[in-house]
Design goal:
This protein has two domains: 249 residues, 2-Layer Sandwich (BirA Bifunctional Protein, domain 2); 84 residues, Rossmann fold. The chain is built from 15 helices and 16 strands. The structure holds histidyl-adenosine monophosphate.
Length: 418
């Protein structure tokens, strides 16, 4: 029989990598806490409508990339392709923003998109996501961008580029959309098939097409800043001023439109030069109409998500520190078969005292056990003499020194040295 492998675009995060992910997540957790964000856990699958209405019918995600199925109750269910719509649904359903209250929420977990797998792009990937709900003013946008950059600073990421734009609002975007349709219609022969298709349905997306010819045309497209209403213009100016006040450098790109339709006003991305084609380590922005699109009242929001897989890749490539690889402190070694039971009891007593400890459970010989102890700080060795005397030989594996300690004092002795 052929062996079953992981589905295309998914992968196993094995121990050699998983401890690095834990480091990234614990750094994120501390950073979120320091910015006043609380952690939430949400369902991995939602009603399909949440994404078709929230993310947008004409987005690539909804049109081509969702894992959608009918469940046994006949409902259309989708594995979440992103977290923002779910966070907003949860806030509405649980009244987190009732009576003008605001909520700062973060979470992390797997997302699912049926994309063409390549370096840094998977079908099951992981995001760290933060959302600030209920605040319409530009200071919240600045706080979210600052949060993402502080997280990356703490992780030691270098050579990042912050790109920002304003995509307008329901008042000014239709005007801009019309200008784009007129402009791109007169350049139809230079557009790729996908962009010709986007022209009637989602012309803003043509602006960030990676096709060279479309890129040339997009470079000459009307500038959104000429179409922004006063409110959006002022909001953008304040976001820029806020970022500058905090000392962040960024570039403005009128071609940054993002692949999700819920954005209003601020849109931003953080790019890394060390990732190849999939160079965005984080993306986000403001989404003041998402709540009403999914049936809630008016709850403004702004947030970001960073790709955990991509952050780990960049950190690896840049030689960033993941802290110390966690391991157990003590290995308990049996010199003979008669000592194995005593050794397992000793190991358990150390664990009960809060000291990480391991012993062999596979019946391996003394030498193999000592080899296994190699990565620990101490080996606690028990043989016939130790059993007879109620002692343990405690070997400091860093300097090779060894002392005999009463069995009942081992936890105290080692605890004092760690
Ligand atoms: P997004 O730009 O689609 O935005 O995704 C955010 C980040 O997730 C990307 O910058 C990238 O690092 C990572 N990512 C996306 N797709 C993949 C993939 N197939 N494989 C690996 N990594 C990937 C959102 O999802 C929005 N919900 C962000 C947001 C939060 N906006 C407001 N609040």
């Amino acid at each position: 029989m052929t062996a079953i492998t992981a589905p295309r675009g998914t992968r196993d995060i094995l121990p050699a990598e998983s401890w690095k992910w834990s480091y990234i997540i614990s750094t994120a957790s501390r950073t979120m806490r320091d910015f006043g964000f609380s952690e939430i856990h949400l369902p991995i699958f939602e009603h399909t409508e949440l994404f078709s209405r929230g993310v947008g019918e004409t987005t690539d995600i909804v049109e081509k990339e969702m894992y959608t199925f009918t469940d046994r109750g006949g409902r259309s269910i989708t594995l979440r392709p992103e977290a923002t719509a779910g966070v907003m649904r949860a806030a509405i359903e649980n009244n987190l923003c009732a009576q003008g209250a605001s909520a700062k929420l973060w979470s992390w977990g797997p997302m699912f998109r049926h994309e063409r797998p390549q370096k840094g792009r998977y079908r099951q990937f992981y995001q760290i996501d933060a959302e600030c709900l209920g605040i319409a003013g530009p200071m919240a946008d600045v706080e979210v961008i600052a949060l993402s950059l502080e997280l990356f600073r703490r992780l030691g990421l270098k050579n990042l580029e912050v790109v920002i734009n304003s995509v307008g609002c329901e008042k000014c975007r239709p005007v801009y959309r019309q200008k784009l349709v007129e402009y791109f219609s007169s350049h139809k022969s230079e557009l790729c098939g996908t962009c010709l298709d986007r022209l009637g349905r989602n012309p803003l997306r043509i602006l960030d097409c990676k096709n060279e010819s479309c890129g040339h045309v997009a470079d000459g497209a009307p500038d959104i800043f000429d179409s922004l209403c006063d409110e959006c213009r002022e909001h953008f100016a304040e976001v820029r001023a806020g970022l500058e006040r905090l000392g962040f450098t960024y570039t403005v790109s009128k071609r940054l439109v993002r692949g999700l339709d819920y954005y209003t006003k601020t849109a931003y991305e953080i790019l890394s030069g060390d990732l190849g084609a999939q160079n965005a380590v984080a993306g986000g922005g403001r989404y003041d109409n998402l709540s009403s699109a999914i049936g809630g009242g008016k709850i403004p929001g702004v947030g970001f998500a960073c790709g955990l897989d991509r952050v780990a890749l960049v950190m690896e490539e840049q030689g960033c520190s993941f802290g110390e690889r966690p391991g157990v402190a003590v290995y308990c070694v049996a010199m003979d078969d008669e000592s194995r039971g005593t050794v397992q009891a000793l190991t358990h007593s150390l664990r009960m005292a809060g000291i990480s400890a391991e012993c062999d459970t596979a019946g391996r010989g003394f030498k193999a056990q000592m080899r296994a102890a190699g990565s620990c700080r101490f080996a606690c060795i028990v043989g016939a003499d130790e059993r007879a005397g109620g002692t343990v030989a405690v070997k400091n594996l860093a300097d090779g020194s060894q002392v005999s300690v009463k069995a009942c004092d081992v936890a105290g002795y080692i605890g004092g040295k760690l």
